[in-house]
Amino acid sequence: GAGVSQSPSNKVTEKGKDVELRCDPISGHTALYWYRQSLGQGLEFLIYFQGNSAPDKSGLPSDRFSAERTGGSVSTLTIQRTQQEDSAVYLCAKSGGALSGELFFGEGSRLTVL
Amino acid sequence: GEDVEQSLFLSVREGDSSVINCTYTDSSSTYLYWYKQEPGAGLQLLTYIFSNMDMKQDQRLTVLLNKKDKHLSLRIADTQTGDSAIYFCAETPRNRDDKIIFGKGTRLHILP
What we know:
The complex is a heterodimer of chains A (114) and B (112). In chain A, 0% of the residues lie in helices and 47% in strands. Chain A has 114 residues and is an all-beta fold.
């Protein structure tokens, strides 16, 4: 929604497999965020890209999680050796609104680890 | 440290008022926000308040800010079934390059 495209919308994988989730912010932005949302934990911050600065990775839950943003635009979140507790909806958001705190979110990628 | 706290669940009867509360820690925040997430969708900005304001009203929505206690609330008057969603409180730091901090979200359930 609002210029943020995420794929896949749904992903079912087996425990131990690697997955890649993609976020395309489509149009102008300076900052890009990844969040994880699950029923019991609510919304959890994962990683934040801002301009050419080093990303803020303080929310990544383990070294199995990594993310990159290529050309200052499309971002990929990679989860290696997936575990069942990684099952969640992964949301991507971009800045670009008139207000500094206005973010535009994608509809998310629902990950199910069997 | 930076933190935004809100309860995870709230149940309200249709027609009553809903009050969703939030506490934050960054006293330098310039804006505070409420986002709404409907089922199967991403978050969308619902309303916001400048840090130098105490109250903002927008139709059925009233935002109250108590800067001394770092407490923010969202009141929804005459709650309808369409208000059923998850509501997120968020703050932005004074430095535009600092990341936005969200609460975990409050799931509002409407009882018939």
